[in-house]
Amino acid sequence: MQSEQNKIRVLLADDHPIVMTGFAMSLSGLGMDVVGQAKTPDEAAAMYAELRPDVLVLDIRFGTELTGLDAARGILAQFPAARIVFLSQFDQDSLIKETYRIGARAFVTKDCDPADLATAVRHAHADKLYFLPQIAERLANLSVRGDVSPQSQLDARGLEIFKLMAEGLTNAEIAEKLNLSAKTISNISQAVKEKLGVHRQAYITRLAVKHGLIEP
Hints:
Elements: E1 9-13, H1 17-29, E2 33-38, H2 41-51, E3 55-59, H3 68-78, E4 84-88, H4 93-101, E5 106-109, H5 114-125, E6 130-131, H6 133-145, H7 150-153, H8 156-166, H9 171-178, H10 182-196, H11 201-210
Helix pairs in contact: 2-3, 4-6, 8-10, 8-11, 9-10
């Protein structure tokens, strides 16, 4: 058994208390020290800075405008050596790829065996990547067939506007929200539709859901 001094210190961040408590108990039972539990992306970032855990286990979806991906980007910008394991019930290919792209060490699904999460945490602590077999296979397939996700085809502004389009906002509403002219939004939205090959609202929304940009 590991001594208290050598235990891996883990911070959990998830907005579902029952899920988080369950994983906290599992990780503690497997010899890890759960030093904190955050319920929002902002709280995760603040607690990471305060506690400086060895590994952060971070959910992707929170019931706020910010996501776990936003929190991870902020934490990694401030602490480049941060070791992050993503935990999510959403497992779209492009979402999985994005977690590794921004610097996560592992992605595990919420229905995984707690032992798999513990293995992911140990790999992250050792600064190694960890792939569940089914995740590795999907990433390999994605690499072979090419990434056609909106995230890979659009720049930051185009992706931002695409997400708002998918949520059902009109060009006028998007222009007001982003403080841009209606003509600018019209031009960008048309370019986005052409690049992605989608024009009807239902298809735009379906594509955004498929690639994890908005919730179903």
